[in-house]
Amino acid sequence: MAETYDRAKELKAFDDTKAGVKGLLESGVTNVPNIFILPKPKQQELPNSTTTTTTTSPRLEIPTIDVHDAEPGGARRALVVEAVRRAAETGGFFQVRNHGVPVEVVEGMLEGVRRFHEQPREVRMEYYTREYTRKVYYNSNFDLYESRVANWRDTLVCTMAPQLPEPADLPEACREILMDYSEHMKRLGDFVFELLSEALGLAPSHLKDVDCTKGRVILSHYYPACPEPDLTIGTSNHSDADFLTILLQDDIGGLQVRYQNQWIDVPPTPGAFVVNIGDMLQMISNDRFKSSEHRVLANAIGPECQLRVSTQRIGIHLRDCMDPSRNCYQQKTLQYTGKPQ
């Protein structure tokens, strides 16, 4: 069916407000604007649709892995490596707890994200841009003008490595906690990469040695309560175009992963981080690790919002990592053929 409204005009009008989805609600919007409305077939795939279908495929359980005492030489190291291997090879999603990140840092980061997105729009607007060469910026939908449907989500993006931004470039509302949280994510990310390296039968430092850990981008997502969550979505179906994502989510939920044609909830677990394999790690592991499609549902819980902090690890020397001679996983008795082992 042909569109009955000027989509390009509405997209520009929304973008020009520099206030994001939060700005729509601040202006009194009570219905989802056309640019956010999913096509009917996509609406019917949402769990609150009366026409949603289910399958009889085996359900994927998102494992929660206790990583306590799994440092090099730790008593539980081999057990944890095996649990990580199973999860990475199956659905590519797992949660980790007892990870060493202090509770006050976790809670402080969520509160910092809330402070940024809920400060006066005039302050938020100072960071709103589509100049993606900046290390720190805020906007709604990075692909606003390319995607068919806009997502009900605003995002603050901070590139924290390989070069740390100047502290003054970070928003005052979350500056200190961003710096602290980023350091904890570096340590946790390096630790998870060690486990993944060993899960591939390689030296603990292997993935770090091929530069999988050099980049670090923190995406602070804000999903305002939606007046019509059956018409739109928080984040469309996608897989992550990185090596690894470590996700902190609040207690509202809404994250789902696709497995054997089913959408499986990734329930919030107090004190845990969600870890998922990215496209680049699937590729350089010869498809041994799986990067799975996932999405975030819009929520309609009163005045509440959903908060998610996604730390993505993106290698700097991608060309080297994609060179078959530097492939991360090769069975010792076989030469690399470019095919999954």
Automatic annotation (TrEMBL):
InterPro entries, per database record: DIOX_N, IPNS-like_FE2OG_OXY, IPNS-like_sf, Oxoglu/Fe-dep_dioxygenase_dom
Domain Fe2OG dioxygenase: 214-318
Annotated TM spans: none
Pfam families the UniProt entry points to: 2OG-FeII_Oxy, DIOX_N
Keyword annotations: Iron, Metal-binding, Oxidoreductase
A GO molecular function held by the record: metal ion binding
PANTHER family recorded: 2OG-FE(II) OXYGENASE FAMILY OXIDOREDUCTASE (PTHR10209:SF776), OXIDOREDUCTASE, 2OG-FE II OXYGENASE FAMILY PROTEIN (PTHR10209)
Family: Belongs to the iron/ascorbate-dependent oxidoreductase family.
Name of the protein described by the UniProt record: Fe2OG dioxygenase domain-containing protein
Organism: Acorus calamus (Sweet flag)
